[in-house]
Design a protein that fits this description.
470 residues, Aldehyde Dehydrogenase, Chain A, domain 1, 2 domains, 6-stranded mixed sheet
């Protein structure tokens, strides 16, 4: 069992006064880590370290910060197996999924280490006697709170941009999946990141996260997690007049028209099983045109039943999430959704872990909770639509607006629908996204953007300087 400590000012730090909790793994519920619950003392120490390191880090040439980010990417790839093993033990993700996750994490540091050199301002002509120019300046200390469903990738996504732009960071990972974030900070120190540039404070939200976001020296807050917590952080940020980047929940629509490539559309529907559906961008609402509805529901039911838990489907990461998904099985049954496949916790040898069956509910209506609420599990809610207008209406009938997908061979219709769906990201016919494509939501799915060059803009603030030539 791993005994975790905070990583502050380039060193492993423990506090004798802190309470600790044991984390059990999702594969078999055996203990995998012991983690501090957090304290005011440790959180303040981490912020003080980041504040002290900021002036020197900010003043480094972007190319120097970028080279360090690039070196961190190379070391992540070289030591990929270590990170995969740790993340699998704590998140339960399939090893293949996690290997891809480590590579993506490295890609973030590599990308931002390069594009930060293109973070230019502009000059503004004010006539013969004055000149103005703009620069993009880092904020200072960034508080970053990351979720349990993708600890390494979610941390790397924000850290790549924040650090390359010249900020220093205090990360508070989920208390359920903290190990890989501590490992990442240790690795950064080993390859030459100055002490204090990247700190990790461990603990729960109330005992560490709340202290961190309220600290007067924190100048920007980045959070990925639930809508409820995001709203609280937004209130704290508003009271303190600091910006917040909030990547929250989703209940994303996957729209399949009757002229679509149905084989490819079927594969997109199966992505609800990636990470056991524990991803905010999961396409959890499948909207299918009426003419092909019955046949497509039958196909997706058969295909989902083949996603064997333990082989093609990971467990729920936390006990709370396991219980939540089971509760939604009961809710769907009470509300009259038609169970096509799944709908139960897994029995037999795998019952030692937090496995649930891959599940499809058909004939789901907008009034049902499984249509409206984020389940965060391998649960697909299928609804029929009649025509284009009906599809758009159903897709937008949600408090969320993170991503959406459209399947049709009518190019004009694809662009019409994509333009009218209220989502921060829309893919058409399986269009592939990447670390270069900005990611973030409309409505209750959050504020700001991660990924892409746009993220660098969110982790910097615009300064205008005016020079007199007289």
């Amino acid at each position: 069992m791993r005994i975790l400590k905070h990583w502050i000012d380039g060193a492993s730090i423990a506090s004798a006064t802190e309470l600790r909790s044991v984390v059990t793994g999702p594969l078999d519920r055996r203990p995998v880590a012991e983690v501090p619950r957090g304290s005011v003392e440790m959180t303040h120490q981490a912020v003080a370290s980041a504040r002290s390191a900021f002036p020197t880090w900010r003043d480094l040439a972007p190319v120097v910060r970028g080279r360090l980010c690039g070196e961190l990417a190379r070391e992540l790839r070289r030591r990929s197996d270590e990170f995969v093993d740790v993340e699998v033990s704590e998140t339960g993700k399939l090893a293949g999924e996690m290997r891809g996750g480590v590579q993506t994490s490295a890609d973030y540091f590599e990308y931002y280490g390069g594009v930060v050199r293109a973070l230019f301002g502009e000059t503004i002509s004010l006539g013969a006697e004055d000149r103005a120019f703009t620069t993009r300046d880092p904020y200072g200390v960034v508080a970053m709170i990351t979720p349990w469903n993708g600890p390494l990738t979610q941390a790397s996504r924000g850290l790549g941009a924040a650090l390359a732009a010249g900020n220093t960071v205090v990360v508070k990972p989920s208390e359920f999946t903290s190990s890989s974030t501590v490992m990442l900070a240790q690795l950064a120190s080993e390859i030459g990141f100055p002490p204090g540039v990247l700190n990790v404070v461990l603990g729960t939200g109330p005992e560490a996260g709340a202290v961190l976001i309220e600290h007067p020296d924190v100048r920007l807050i980045a959070f990925t997690g639930s809508v409820e917590t995001g709203r609280h952080i937004a209130k704290v940020a508003a009271e303190r007049l600091v910006p917040a980047i909030l990547e929250l929940g989703g209940k994303s629509a996957n729209i399949v028209f009757d002229d679509a490539d149905l084989d490819r559309a079927l594969q997109s529907a199966l992505t609800i099983t990636v990470g056991a559906g524990q991803q905010c961008a999961a396409l959890s609402r499948l909207l299918v045109q009426s003419r092909i509805y019955d046949a497509f529901v039958e196909r997706i039911g058969h295909a989902m039943a083949l996603q064997v838990p333990g082989e093609r489907l990971a467990p729920m990461t936390t006990e709370g999430q396991f219980e939540k998904v089971i509760e939604y099985f009961a809710i769907a049954s009470r509300e009259g959704a038609r169970l096509v496949t799944g709908g139960h916790p897994v029995s037999g040898p795998l019952s030692a872990g937090r496995y649930v069956e891959p599940t499809v509910y058909a004939d789901v209506t907008p009034g049902m909770r499984i249509f409206r609420e984020e389940i965060f599990g391998p649960v697909l809610a299928v609804t029929a639509f009649d025509d284009e207008e009906d599809a758009i209406r159903l897709a937008n009938d949600s408090d969320f607006g993170l991503v959406a997908s459209v399947w049709t061979n009518d190019g004009a219709r694809a662009l019409r629908v994509a333009s009218r769906v209220d989502s921060g990201q829309v893919t058409v016919n399986g269009g592939r996204t990447g670390i270069e494509t900005p990611f973030g939501g409309f409505k209750s799915s959050g504020l700001g953007r991660e990924k892409g060059f746009e993220s660098l803009l969110h982790y910097t603030q615009l300064k205008t300087t005016v020079v007199s030539l007289r």
